[in-house]
Amino acid sequence: MTKIRLTKEFSFEAAHLLEGYDGACREIHGHSYRLFVTVRGVPVCDGRNPKLGMVMDFGQLKRIVGEEVVQRLDHAFVMHRTPAGEAFAEALGTRFERIVCVDYQPTCENMLADFAARIAPRLPEGVELYALRLHETATSYAEWVADDNN
């Protein structure tokens, strides 16, 4: 049984605030994120299955990641849910709709851990989340790899 990895690329635009950070990124700023999702599995070998030869349908992967990540964060402002953050989010909410408060500092690293926890349980039986790569810029990215997290 040959295991195969599939990767699909996604993109979304989002702004975030790194509350308490001591560098230039302490200011509200945004990114054109590029997310690469890699899954691993054995291609279907049952000739009666319409997915014969596939690890999974790319359309199904697109739907899962779209629902769990892209639709949730595209053109949103992401911030850490803290007492100060919640007051700020409430004030912004009088004017803007797409404010997403998360239970972590919304760094590239923490976002990947969140994405992994959202995507992995939705994958079909026999398909595992293998890796995630999230680019904040053309030259900066973070990676989550399943083997590092078992």
UniProtKB/TrEMBL annotation:
Binds 1 zinc ion per subunit. Its EC number is 4.1.2.50. Zn(2+) binds at residues 16, 29, 31. GO terms for molecular function: 6-carboxytetrahydropterin synthase activity; metal ion binding. The keyword Lyase applies. Gene3D superfamilies: 6-pyruvoyl tetrahydropterin synthase/QueD. It catalyses: 7,8-dihydroneopterin 3'-triphosphate + H2O = 6-carboxy-5,6,7,8-tetrahydropterin + triphosphate + acetaldehyde + 2 H(+). Its cofactor is Zn(2+). It comes from the Bacteria. It holds the Pfam family PTPS. The keyword Metal-binding applies. The active site is at residues 25, 75, 136. Pathway: Purine metabolism; 7-cyano-7-deazaguanine biosynthesis. InterPro entries: 6-PTP_synth/QueD (IPR007115), 6-PTP_synth/QueD_sf (IPR038418). Keywords: Lyase, Metal-binding, Zinc. Belongs to the PTPS family. QueD subfamily. This is 6-carboxy-5,6,7,8-tetrahydropterin synthase. It comes from Alistipes communis.
